[in-house]
Amino acid sequence: MFILITFAATTAQGETCLSPPRPFLPAGEAEMIEFAEIIRQDFEYYINDIQAYFRCLDEERARAFEEARQVSQDYGRFQAVIKAN
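and the corresponding structure tokens:
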């Protein structure tokens, strides 16, 4: 008797969501005034990047949830086959 078992490897992998670095804010007021435009841009970039980071986390959570649902169904099918034999 020959039994062939096939395992389907999933290629779907989660996305790595990287949190943006926190913008630097000098301690001294003179430096804040002198570099105001650069600091403002750094904060604006951070705000845009952190919003993208939150979207990435939301998308990854949804993807992982769907994957877990599918794995749970696969496990249920596996258990049914084992129980029937």
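(Above: one complete record from the training split.) The chain has two helices and no strands.
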